[in-house]
Structures are given as structure tokens and as C-alpha cells.
Known about the structure:
The chain has helices at residues 3-29, 41-74, 89-94, 102-108.
Amino acid sequence: MDPKMIDGARLALESERERLRVELAEEVEHPRVSHGAQTAAATEVTESQRGQQLRGREQQHLVQIEAALGRIEAGTFGRCQTCGKAIAPERLEALPWAIDCIDCHARTRR
Ligand SMILES: [Zn+2]
């Protein structure tokens, strides 16, 4: 795999990781839900759940990014974890954290 491509992917992954870390940290410092308000309790529950779902997705995404950076270090970046073939460069450019090639992804997609 082209080292320039790997460098580009690493940069993209690192900046995405940074963005997610900031977002998750802000979430802790400034929770979207204000506790103790008497009004609109039902709405607050919904928004709290939505916030948790969003956080869950961000955390999951962060895990995927960490894993991809780990694969760069290990030298296995860009290989499909299902069939072992090289993942298409266009796919890695769009989704540097992709773990499978487009064929396997299409097969395993729910
Ligand atoms: Zn594959």
C-alpha cells in the first residue's frame, strides 16, 4: 500500500479522533440536559436519551478510529478483515476506519 496514502489516512484519523474527543469532552462539561427543571420533564427524558445515543455513536466511532490507527502501526491497514484483500483506495479515502472491503461490507450489511 502506498505510504502517502497511509500518511493521509493517519492524518484524517488523527484529526477525526481529536474532533470526537473534544465533542465528547464538551458533552461532559456542558450536558445538554438540565436536571431539576420542573417543566417539560417528558421532553427532557427524550433529549437525554437522544444525547446518550449520540454519545454512544461517537464513542463507538472513536473506537473504530483507534483501531484503524492501531492497524496503521501494525502494518495491516488497508486489508479487509473478512477476506484479507486490499480495500479500495477510494473507500479508504472516504472511510479510513473501514475494516472490510466494499464486497464484504455489502454482504454483511444488515
Ligand atoms: Zn473483503
